[in-house]
């Protein structure tokens, strides 16, 4: 593949140099296209199973670190509209959810 993000350097020195490079926003957005497509697929399936059209959704609450990725937000805005997007606790919500689930599983609650 010609994309340097997919290339695996042959030596430790090359690996360190590769890790020191930061991808551009455009390169990163292209790099995560398969994951964005997976998100679109899941959202489509959820809406389909619920029998709900994107226009019928009042608010989309995006949380977790991925909610801060502009490409993720752009995909959600394209489907639901920018005005419907909301978020919060992006960097702690997943940890709180995991802690709550662990409590359920391991404390008999």
What does this structure look like?
The protein is mostly helical. It has one domain (24-106). It contains 5 helices and 2 strands, in the order αααβαβα. The longest helix has 18 residues, at 33-50. The chain is extended and about 50 Å long. 2% of the residues are buried.
Number of strands: 2
Beta-strand residue percentage? 5-15%
What's the tally of helices? 5
Q: Tell me the span between the first and last alpha carbons.
A: 50 Å
The secondary-structure element order is HHHEHEH
Strand order of the largest sheet: 1-2
Mean pLDDT: 86
Q: What ranges have pLDDT less than 50 throughout 5 or more consecutive residues?
A: none
Largest sheet: 2 strands, parallel
Radius of gyration: 18 Å
Structural class: mainly alpha
Topology summary:
Elements: H1 12-20, H2 25-31, H3 33-50, E1 60-62, H4 70-80, E2 85-87, H5 93-106
Parallel strand pairs: 1-2
Short descriptors:
two-stranded parallel ribbon, 5 helices, mainly alpha, extended, about 110 residues
Kindly summarize this structure in a few lines.
This protein has 109 residues and is mainly alpha-helical. It has helices at residues 12-20, 25-31, 33-50, 70-80, 93-106, and strands spanning 60-62, 85-87. The N and C termini lie far apart (50 Å).
